[in-house]
Write a structure and sequence with these properties.
3 strands, three-stranded antiparallel β-sheet, mainly alpha
Length: 196
């Protein structure tokens, strides 16, 4: 009878998922505690209040770190971490419960969406400080996840197919790009910070 081994495997996967979720909540709490995140990324952009008339024309999938955190916590990975709770936010209490993410990859995809939205909307030379802030926050997130033992991150879902076959995200901050051609004998490392 293989029921015990299936049951044991299911429990092991559940424990690993809970640890990854808890690590992501901790990493998000670390990122969200920074001044740039508090000012620009924790809350949804209020385009009307900020007079950004073209924001929703440029950013077609708005996302905030608070929204990501709420969905991760809805999956049960928060372990009561202080600073990660939204209990004092009346709008969060009144809103319907967020849908948990099916996987760590899906949560990371939405975090990348926050960074992508910033880069796309703030692409002008004069807004380079925001793009640098995104790079620093992404680095903080990756370092926090690495400290929790999560060093192999899923690839972005919008990465072109050819790149998916050549990119390895085993290092928390510097992916290794392997040559596509079989004529080259050694891998080449390049910094792909702008692909985050």
């Amino acid at each position: 009878d293989d029921t015990p081994s299936c049951s044991g495997l299911t429990r092991a996967v559940a424990r690993r998922t809970a640890r990854a979720s808890a690590a992501l909540v901790q990493a998000l709490a670390t990122v969200m505690a920074t001044e740039p995140a508090k000012e620009f990324f924790n809350h949804p952009v209020d385009a009307v209040a900020l007079g950004l008339d073209d924001y929703h024309d440029v950013v077609t999938r708005p996302m905030s770190l608070r929204e990501v955190l709420a969905r991760v916590q809805a999956g049960g990975g928060h372990d009561g971490h202080p600073g990660a709770s939204n209990d004092n936010d009346a709008t969060t209490k009144d809103a319907e419960a967020p849908t948990p993410y099916p996987s760590l990859a899906d949560a990371l995809q939405d975090i990348r969406q926050v960074w992508r939205n910033c880069r796309v909307y703030n692409s002008s030379f004069h807004m380079a400080h925001l793009r640098r802030a995104v790079d620093a926050l992404d680095e903080t997130l990756r370092e926090s996840l690495a400290k929790a033992g999560i060093t192999s991150l899923p690839l972005p879902s919008d990465l072109p197919e050819q790149a998916k076959a050549t990119v390895s995200y085993n290092h928390p901050t510097l992916p290794t790009i392997l040559p596509v051609s079989t004529t080259s004998s050694s891998p080449t490392s390049i910094n792909t910070n702008n692909d985050r």
